[in-house]
Amino acid sequence: MHYSGDILGTAFPTAYDPVMTSLEERAVQPFYLEMMGLNALHLSFGLWPELVTEAKAVTLDDAKWLLRVGAWRPVVMGAWFSVRFPAAEIGQELRRAMAVSQGSLTAPPLAVACVVVSGIDAAPEMRQYVEADPGQDGSASFVAAGIEHLGGPPVGSVADEDRQAFERLVHVATSLRASVT
């Protein structure tokens, strides 16, 4: 396995085994399409009972693994499932995943989870994402809306539609958190 380097003390694998683990079959595959990017704004409530049930079943170690594995599908669901846990338990892994996000499939769920779980402590990693703009796909404006939401210093330009989408996606995350804690 190759590693992308040491980010906040933990190397991330760059190669991903395409064979799904039982965790991925149970906690990722049924949900990731509806929960990636901004899809949760329109699609999450159709699978809400199943999502809540699975979020309750995901352990802290499961959520950390999903955030660390490096493949975008598990990272999407790791972000959503992380809202169940306190920042002291998962904040570092969540912020690390935000710092290495590669674009619009993972950045919105990660940014929202960072805000809900870690609050202002996540602003440096979110800022790093915005400044790097790795996906060059408009997701940097969405993440910048998250920094704005936290009251952090402005970075980049933020589109009004991203501010609105961010607030709506925070509502999805806080609703999930309230359903599982």
What is the structure about, briefly put?
With about 180 residues, this protein is mainly α. The chain has helices at about 20-25, 30-35, 40-45, 50-55, 60-70, 70-80, 85-100, 105-120, 125-130, 140-150, 160-180; strands at about 5, 10-15.
Explain this structure to me?
It is globular, with a radius of gyration of 15 Å. The N terminus is likely disordered. 42% of the residues are buried. A two-stranded antiparallel sheet has the order 1-2. It has 181 residues and is mostly helical. It has one domain.
List keywords for this structure.
single chain, 181 residues, mainly alpha, two-stranded antiparallel sheet, disordered N terminus
Topology overview:
Elements: E1 3-7, E2 10-13, H1 22-27, H2 32-35, H3 40-43, H4 48-57, H5 60-68, H6 72-82, H7 87-100, H8 107-118, H9 123-132, H10 139-150, H11 160-180
Antiparallel strand pairs: 1-2
Helix pairs in contact: 5-6, 5-7, 6-7, 6-8, 7-8, 7-9, 8-10, 8-11, 9-10, 10-11
